[in-house]
């Protein structure tokens, strides 16, 4: 079952944006290591990643077991990509009817 979303914001000044979200917006957060803050959103979370343009965004749906969710989705006729495991989570993609893709993510980090 999909149980959340992980929103990634790219920023040319990630530390400043993280501090703003933490201090000004007051979002609860955890430090995933090296001051890499992950924020709680109701009912999602936001992490600010470095980027060159500051205008790109990605949306990842979140689940506890990506393999089980892929099985559920494919049984419903949804095409999913292969599972990639970069070490901090397990990722796949979900094909939308339009041809666009959404990320599906089983995080390994603590959730805020």
Mean pLDDT: 84
Q: What share of the residues does DSSP label as strand, in percent?
A: 35-45%
Query: SS-based structural class?
Result: alpha/beta
Segments where pLDDT lies below 50 for 5+ residues?
A: none
Order of helices and strands: EHEEEEHEE
CATH superfamily: 2,3-Dihydroxybiphenyl 1,2-Dioxygenase, domain 1
Main beta-sheet strand count, sense and barrel state:
7 strands, mixed
Report on this model:
19% of the residues lie in helices and 39% in strands. It is of the alpha/beta class. The protein has a single domain (2-107), classed as 2,3-Dihydroxybiphenyl 1,2-Dioxygenase, domain 1, CATH 3.10.180. A seven-stranded mixed β-sheet has the order 2-3-4-1-5-7-6. The longest helix is centred in the N-terminal third of the chain and has 11 residues, at 14-24. The chain is globular.
Give the gist of this structure:
By secondary structure, the protein is α/β, with parallel strands linked by helices.
Q: How are the SSEs ordered, and which strands pair?
A:
Elements: E1 2-11, H1 14-24, E2 29-31, E3 37-40, E4 45-50, E5 57-63, H2 66-75, E6 89-95, E7 101-107
């Amino acid at each position: 079952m999909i149980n959340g979303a992980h929103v990634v914001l790219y920023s040319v000044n990630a530390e400043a944006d993280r501090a703003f979200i933490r201090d000004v917006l007051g979002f609860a957060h955890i430090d995933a290591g090296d001051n890499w803050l992950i924020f709680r959103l109701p009912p999602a979370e936001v992490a600010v990643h470095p980027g060159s343009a500051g205008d790109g965004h990605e949306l990842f749906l979140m689940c506890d077991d990506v393999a089980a969710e892929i099985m559920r989705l494919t049984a419903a006729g949804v095409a999913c990509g292969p599972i990639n495991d970069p070490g901090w989570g397990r990722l796949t993609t979900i094909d939308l009817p339009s041809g666009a893709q959404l990320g599906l993510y089983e995080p390994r980090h603590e959730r805020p």
